[in-house]
Specification:
Radius of gyration: 51 Å
Number of helices: 10
GO molecular function: mechanosensitive monoatomic ion channel activity
Oligomer: single chain
Shape: elongated
Protein name: Mechanosensitive ion channel family protein
Number of strands: 8
CATH topology of one domain: Alpha-Beta Plaits
Mean pLDDT: 75
Helix content: 40-55%
Family: Belongs to the MscS (TC 1.A.23) family.
Subcellular location: Cell membrane
Membrane topology: Multi-pass membrane protein
Low-confidence stretches: 8-15, 19-25, 89-101, 327-339
Length: 373
Amino acid sequence: MPKPAIRCTDTRSLGCAPSFPQHRRGPVTDVTSSTREAAGWLDANWESWIDGTLRIVVIVLLGLVLRAVVRKLIDQLIHRMTREAEHSDTDTSSRLGGLLVNPERRSQRAAAIGSVLRSVASFSIMGTASLMVLSEVGVDLAPLLASAGVAGVALGFGARNLVTDFLSGVFMIMEDQYGVGDEIDMGVATGTVLEVGLRVTKLRGGSGEIWYIRNGEVKRIANMSQGWSTATVDVQVGYKEDLDKVEALILTAAEAFAKESPWDELLWEPVEVLGVESVSADTVVLRVQAKTMPSKAQLVTRALRGRLKAVFDGAGIKLKEEAAAPAAAASPATTADAQPPSALADPSSARSLGARPIPPPSPEEQQAFGKLP
């Protein structure tokens, strides 16, 4: 006979197990199995998670360290360039050579180049690190890179002027074609440089206007502020003046002019008389030339021209030969020879008769004409 089921009233006894209703065992079993599956999934994947997290941390740290190292190397390179510029300026004895080296300009150019290099290095390093992090996360980079390539091509075609301006600005700065304060002629505009950018150059024109010129549009640049400038004066004297005396006066006046302030700083070489530039019927033009500080040629030219004018006035040098006096007026003609007799004065002359009006025909002549066929 089957044994009867034992009903336990005291669940604390060893032989007694609590009895649960059959409908309550299902949810407990499902929770237990889900917990076991989650624990097994965590046990199987926690190592890969930790490994991936460590990879991402290492990639980010390496990117930051590499970026800091590259920026430090760029700063050292810029500092070295600036220091070499200062040493070269110290070793240069002449004032002209010092301006050609121009340490301040080289420092500005080095700072601009350093800024561009730091930006490019940061973008390249951190961009590569970001792609590596996305790869570790599990993002498929093939579609992303393909989309980036297509977007880059489209951007290159759509913004080619912007790219051209940027590249032209980079090369202008690297080659030190001009800087702030230079007087330049860019073809489309002439003026003093106010700002040099990677895309646009700002100029102040002679009338005070401000020009914004895209670097990609510049085809030629004439810099009047690098090295030195040349002051040229064309001196006009009379044709009969002694050229040796005139040349001696010019050199004496220029020597005294060069010893005065501020012209002693603006004039870098003695004034030279190059010789006769042109000859005409009443004048001779001599060309005088001097090497000056950059962008100061016009100022020196005006001052030197005024000084030579005062010296010529004191020495009695004529700037142009006077015209010869007109010949004395001829004696008045006699009454008989004052004027030839007019042809109209003699009524019987052929010219007088030819000038008479044609008289109207007489009645006889009219009748005679009327009988004609």
